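Pair request: fold both.
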Amino acid sequence: MRMVGPRTYGALARVLRASSFALTLIAASSALASLPARPAGGPAAGLSEHTARSLQHELSAEFATADLRLEVQQRAWQIVADRHYDPGFNGVDWQAVREKYRLPVIAAKSDAEMYLALKSMVRELKDSHTRVVTPRESADHRRFATLASGISLSVIDDQLLVIDVDPDSPAARADVRKGDVVVAIDNRQFDAAFLRSARDLPLTGADVTSSEAEPARQDEVSRFAQLRAVRRALQRMPDALPRAQLLTLQRDGEDQVTVTLMPEPLVRPPAVTAHVSDTGIAVLKLNRFSVRNRNDVEQALRRVADARALVLDLRGNGGGDYSQFMWLVRQFLPEPRVVLTQLFRRGDEQSARELRITPAETPFLKPLAVLTDRRSGSASELTATALLEQRDALIVGESTCGCVVAVRSEYVLPGAGGVRVSETGFRSAQGRRMEGEPLAPTIYAPPTLAHLRAGRDRALETAEKALLDRLLLDTAVQ
């Protein structure tokens, strides 16, 4: 299936100018059928880290005129209109959204501005997975790469804190530490006054880098809004060239220090770690869900099979392969169970289908706890919810992302960018909506400044203690 060329778009533009609005939809929908799609994950023919071009600082041939740009906008809009799993579009007037972004599309002076307009348009849906991606973003996603400095930030007590540092990253090499307070990045001050003013910042189409939904706990709502304000202040144009950032950090009992970080592509393939503590509690940590390391996960489960209980650490795990979620849940079920309902689009209606999972031959049936935070999304949330409802697992830490939908394909746009649209939604076995509604922990244990600076893991310590208490209770009952 070939991509439609600029000449075809020009011909269609002349038809659109001479046609009514209703015919515009029909013409665009017809052209949509000729647009190719590529897999949502894994290798894609004709697209790699070597072939994906960076965005132009001017308009490329595919976006050279206002008519061409409006046609591309129409295609992106129509893909979502035809394929999004929710015929009600999360309560958003999808036609009004298209009209809202016509002027930014017409006014775009570069490929980057064009993509920013398209990204903002689909962000109005407040759907975690529906997005427009540049060719570079699509290629990086497939090789598990992110252009980053290697730090994870959170807001605690009106302070912007480093809560994690990626090993072998610019931040690690610059000796950035957990518990460092970020006072400023370049010339942007992130002091208490800035963060307090952002406690009620709403999520809008401008937040193209924020996917998580608002949690139920009010203190978490404020913290998420504050972090959103930081992202918005630092947000750059799509595919902007990396540049060094100057961080001003405050450490306990020390003067302020400054470090310069140059983001670089951090490739983080699927990985699993496992160990058993002195108390007999196993800890299994997954950084993503992928069939590529299923054997590694299976071997790790065998190594901890004799543990008294297990902590599944899904913090920072944004999800991954749906089939790996099903496989992992099998390892903990005592019998066949309906674990969720899948939601699909059928024309203007929505259909539902239950998902029943059968257990593995030798499942782990001892007490469970799952560690989550705001970065736990998609397959991580499906797993945590299934284990909570089916195994009475403890959920410890912070609320999840609320990002629980599935993308089947990436629909190719002119210029090799793409539209990733949520074509499957989910409802838990107990009827809980999952997309847009973060899973709240049964035991709330966010990191604290004192724990971070002492090198302690509050959520893990809390989970281990809760599991030991549950083991004692089970022994007493017996």
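--- second member of the pair ---
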Amino acid sequence: MLKASFYTLGCRLNQAETALISSTFTDGGYEIVPFNESADVCVINSCTVTEHADAKCRQLVRQVLKRNPQTYVAVVGCYSQTSSEALKKVDGIDLIIGTQEKLKVLQHIDEPSKTPQPKIVRDTVDRKSFTIDIKDPKIKTTRANIKIQDGCDFMCSFCVIPFARGRARSRAFWDIQREAIDLASQGFKELVITGVNIGTYQFEGKSFLDVLKMLLSIPGLERIRISSIEPTTIPYELLDIMADNEKLCPHLHIPLQSGCDKTLSAMKRKYNVKEYMEFIDAAYKKIPNIMLATDIIVGFPGETQTDFAQTCATFRDSPLTYVHVFSFSQRDKTAAGRLPDKIDPRTKKQRSKELHVLSDQKKQKFYEQSLGQTVRLLVENQSHNGHWQGFSDNYIKIAVDIPGIKKNDLINVQLKEVLDDVVYATNGDF
């Protein structure tokens, strides 16, 4: 039996798509093996949001071929879409597939044997609504990602995604429903709604809220979690639903990108700090114990120390719990790539470190304020010390040592102690 391995770089949407691609290989008679094992085919689902992601992809190719020089290497996704000619120069790649055909990678492998030159499949990305024909995806994680949308029309000045994934398009409403019902029948208790810009979902009069309400109505699904969602696309009605329905996880990840209006304007974001914070404050007041997270880019061209200090103050003084920090990475084709006043790497590194420290402090405080509460834990995996781990509805990372529990159990636990980035808990049913 032929063997295939997979590696996913980047976002949760990529994770969802890798699971779908992997299913086609299983159905095609392949045995799926861990990435660190020798395989006949290795598929790398790429990311190109940063220069680091590009470099990591090239490093992975070398790593695969060092382990087995005869492995057929396919690089698919965003990096393939934007930089196929650069990838063509990397020794050992046999297949380069862009965004449009990435889920059909197996169909482009006639025989998994090394080729003198890579085959390149890089079509223009279709703007039409779409369905996903892969049935019964083989998902190994406890939480299942469900893709509802792809692409983006916002054209933020720093972002390469519209070039890598195309313009915004939505998945057929009935096709989302079909997959969600299938996942519930397989025993999944939590679905994570994924896409590039999920709040812009539109299909035959159906909106993002219609998708959300449909998912909440499916029997067997106990938790629906929303992945990253753009601030200008969130209707306030979402907060009412979240407050009233325990199935909808009280956890939102809403990218801010900068806490300075001057920088937001240069980024071509569609809001200012005041408008963003109005929604954050409303969510905090409406929903007890909600965890609010964000993304911030440091070192954007022209960002002064005063601008950065303002961003830190905006984050520090807000109800936001933690931040994913990204150092600005110049991307070809983007407007920001042509801006003057670039920030030197040392300054970007220092600003990133400062914001990480502040984020860790705020998350620690949130965890400590949650002690004593009884929350729901979805059991996901067992650590090296034998403790089971998972996340609460509001995304607190929890560890427990409770006899008799197993993966995919949804149990009540009482939060007792914070150690590093984990909250230790005991049985909450006593």
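Observation on the second member. The domain at 3-121 is CATH 3.40.50.12160 (Rossmann fold).
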